[in-house]
Amino acid sequence: MINSYKEFWTHIFTMNAKANRSQYWWPVIINYILGGIAVGIIENILGHPLSTIYTPGDLYVDSTVRSVAFVVWIGTFTVKARRLHDTNRSAWWILIEIIPLIGTIWFFILTLLPGVSDSRWGKNQRNI
């Protein structure tokens, strides 16, 4: 679990590799939990939702949260691509999520499929 999460941050910009199921799911689950905890703490400290800006300090917090969210989004995007590569699919399959509900379910199923040993992308992210 910890190794998968470290690899997520180590290979944040790696697209041409593979990620097995644990290398995909652990970072996704951990980021989801940490994000919820962080938002809850920040909103309790501020005393209002993050989406409302009342003071310049709120603007600073909002900018920081958006910057961190963008970096996490980049890492999540690339690990999605690596997960699809492990199933011998192109990263373009990420666009299936554009289709409401059905696309999200389809992508979820794609991430659950087992990896293929003779994939076009030969290296696992651990071996880079």
Query: What is the rounded distance between the termini?
Result: 19 Å
Query: What general form does the structure show?
Result: elongated
DSSP, total strands: 0
Q: Write the element-wise H/E pattern from the N-terminal end onward.
A: HHHH
Mean pLDDT figure: 91
For the biggest sheet, the summary is: none
Low-confidence stretches: none
Which value, in Å, is the CA radius of gyration? 17 Å
The helix/strand class is mainly alpha
Kindly estimate the percentage of residues that lie in beta strands according to DSSP: under 5%
Instruction: Indicate the percent of residues in helices.
Output: 55-70%
GO cellular component, one term: plasma membrane
Transmembrane segments: 24-47, 59-79, 91-113
Protein name: DUF805 domain-containing protein
Organism: Lentilactobacillus kisonensis DSM 19906 = JCM 15041
Topology:
Layout (H helix, E strand, L loop, with lengths): L1 H9 L10 H26 L9 H31 L15 H11 L16
Question: How would you summarize this macromolecular structure in one to three sentences?
Answer:
The chain has helices spanning 2-10, 21-46, 56-86, 102-112.
Q: Could you characterize the architecture of this molecule?
A:
This protein has 128 residues and is mostly helical. It has one domain. Helix content is 60%, strand content 0%. Helix 1 (2-10) packs across helix 2 (21-46) and helix 2 runs antiparallel to helix 3. The longest helix is centred in the middle third of the chain and has 31 residues, at 56-86.
What keyword list fits this structure?
mainly alpha; 0% strand; membrane; DUF805; DUF805 domain-containing protein; transmembrane
